[in-house]
Amino acid sequence: MLLTSKLRDKKMDSKVNIRRLNTGVPGLDNLLGGGLPEFSFNLIAGTPGSGKTTLAHQIMFAQAKPDKRALFFTVMGEPPLKMLRYQQQFSFFDITKVNESIRFVNLSKDLMEGDFDVVFARIGQEVRDYAPSLVFVDSFRSVVQAGRAKEAGVSGLQRFVQQLGMQMTGWQATSFLIGEYLSPEAESSPIFTVADGILWLTQNLHRNSMVRKMQVVKMRGQSQAPGLHTFRMSDEGIRVFPRAIQKQDETFDSESKISRAQGRISMGISGLDQMLGGGLPMGYALLVVGPSGSGKTILSTEFLAEGVRRGETGVIAAFEKSPSQLLNIKLAELVKAEQVTVVNTRTLDLSIDETLSDLIAMVRKTKAKRMVIDSLSGFELALAPEFSEDFRGSLYRMIAQLTDMGITIVMIAELEDRYTDLRFSPYGSAFLADAIVVQRYVEMAGKLERVCSVVKVRGSDHSKDICLFSITDQGIVMGQPVTDYTGLLTGQPQLDGSEKGRAKRDTK
Amino acid sequence: MTMDTRNLLRHQIIKSLLAHHMAKGGGGAILLWEQLATQLISLIGEDGFVTLYDRSVVLAKAIFPWLELSAQPMQISHRFAELRSSLDGQSAAAANAANSLLLITFTDIIAALIGEEMSINTLHSAWGHVVDKQVKGQKNG
Hints:
The structure holds 2 protein chains of 2 kinds.
Chain A: H1 2-14, E1 20-21, H2 28-32, E2 36-37, E3 41-46, H3 52-63, E4 70-74, H4 80-87, E5 102-106, H5 108-113, H6 116-130, E6 134-138, H7 140-149, H8 153-170, E7 174-180, H9 190-194, E8 197-206, E9 209-219, E10 228-234, E11 237-241, H10 254-260, E12 264-265, H11 270-275, E13 280-281, E14 285-290, H12 296-309, E15 314-318, H13 329-336, E16 340-344, H14 352-366, E17 370-374, H15 376-382, H16 385-388, H17 391-404, E18 408-414, E19 435-444, E20 447-457, E21 466-472, E22 475-481, E23 485-486, E24 494-495, H18 499-507
Parallel strand pairs in A: 3-7, 3-8, 4-5, 4-6, 6-7, 14-18, 14-19, 15-16, 15-17, 17-18
Antiparallel strand pairs in A: 1-2, 8-9, 9-10, 10-11, 12-13, 19-20, 20-21, 21-22, 23-24
Helix pairs in contact in A: 6-8, 7-8, 14-17
Chain B: H1 3-22, H2 26-60, H3 76-88, H4 92-114, H5 116-140
Helix pairs in contact in B: 1-2, 1-4, 1-5, 2-3, 2-4, 2-5, 4-5
């Protein structure tokens, strides 16, 4: 029994342990399930202009060093002169590595003169001579097309790909074939069968907005993040934003959230804390709804300022105002003192995942405990139209991930100004929130007054009162519950003329 | 190192090499081109090399109209044969001046396209020791 167990342990120890290489592309290692398997044979595929060569270069420059050299074969795709010219614009392109750790080899002539065998022999010769740890062939599609033109056909290609895949692994090189393909489903190329990993890049136009996406179609031996994930290309190269996916072993249902809520935090407005039942439960997402000018941003400023008073930093995602436009002085001062950090997101082609990635990075950097999203409608407008269509679902995933990190969130939402009825929440976003506070204007004795009500605090008792409040130089000052009036919900309340109402006023 | 001094360095390398190869006649000049071609063709392909070479000849013809450039297919061997024939028909001084201008123009175009640093690296791979000597001299100076 003991012997069997020992043998089993020994067997476990002797199993191959595949090393994973860091790609040097932010977010991509997460997508791949921990990095690229060493000595794997990969395909980087996608439509023209989708960023295949840039991705390959970024991985190559991240990995290549004198004892881990890289060979980059260029074939008949993008002219190498242009490729070298344009790729140098990215910050990852380190010229000191060229020749020292990276060698570019052009195969056009071999391909023009010969068939797969000639190309294969040349690749083999170069790999033997240079002994690289990384090999790239760009564009592999050109090799395939040239092979077809010479009637080497599918069988020739199949043999070539199989030989190449086997040889690359035999040479102990992690290799990448780069090629233009339209969609994974439409392809029956042998390369799709032979490859250990397939990275698919696309760029989609939707109502004048362009969104780049990446899919790990296949990655042998490890669990990759499924589905399409957005990525952005900037001067720094490619950055991937893995899609926020609810983990199977985690639930974000109200019951588990309530059990996780440890203590309550003050909103910085004493009357409001009482209305919420003793402050906002930690890790909750509070939706503050109200018409323009009702005091939503001031309420969220008080929330952040209270955190700062308690030694907590905060983050505000400003989708409507730039940092220089932060309208209240108190918030501007908190930002200036670096107690609150602004994630300024005013471009109009964002994805939820990119925003989430920025927010999480900022929360980790500043160790923030409180966050304000100002506002949901501004956020929706900042997203590329493609993502606006699934705004609620994506927002749900984002809020779930942030609150799961223990962040308490205040989300601001604009409520349509309607004076004929009193609405409590905008349609569609109330389900996202664990708590809802509504601010409204009502006409009382010929004056516009601000009233506030707590509509919901999940798993907690809370005030059902509709309370007056005012905005002063000191911030929001909560007033008394409105008990003298009836018909508040109609937006046109009347002084309570009943005997009970008169008696109440007399008592006051 | 500024761009101007780097340009100067590249030009100095070429002049120094040509002075060294002058004694060998047209064959020596062609050898420099062949060494450069071996490195550059590996990087940018033969088509890329010939395109840039043709452009350099067109520009150099303004001063040395006797430089030949036929409409032959894009093969580097044809181009070098033409160059040798052009240089052989001239005095050593004129051949050296034309070849110097041609190499400088060619490397200027390369540097404009792929950057000075990568160009110097390529020259180093092609003409190793002479480039080293010039770079050392530049540093000491």
